[in-house]
Design a protein that fits this description.
7 helices; 172 residues; 13% strand; alpha/beta; globular
Length: 172
Amino acid sequence: MVWLTGLSGAGKSTIADALGPTLRARGLAVEVLDGDVVRTHLSKGLGFSREDRDLNVLRIAFVAHLLSRNGVTVVVSAISPYRAAREEARRRIGAFVEVAVAPPLEACIARDPKGLYAKALAGEIPAFTGVSDPYEPPLAPEVHLDTTQIDVQTAVDRIVLALEERGHLGAP
């Protein structure tokens, strides 16, 4: 189980989408739970208050727990901005590798794949994580990735190594 957390535009989904096939190639059943996709289908109607964001994270954790207890390797890619909600997710799921996808905010703003930072900086999106709402980075993630310094394959390799070191994967 892998939980990627970070700001919008950090590279979480890109890394998760590359990690899935890498793990499948090792014979694992893998499911990627993307925060945006889950919000669209499982958490439709939730807003962006702290309570709604926490509820979304806990819903993701619930689904991740169900899948993982049935032998599926789960890769979560979600902003999950609040430390307490991520800690609660870990408590509910059990062991997972937390990955802080952490380029500088300026890099996320420059990437802005969805145009959200431009809107947030213009005041059109209230309570936007990293701009007008806090993001609480993990204090001790198992993996820390600055995606301005490494490519996607290196990020995947570092996550796989962390999984191997913690006994979550057999030898390649």
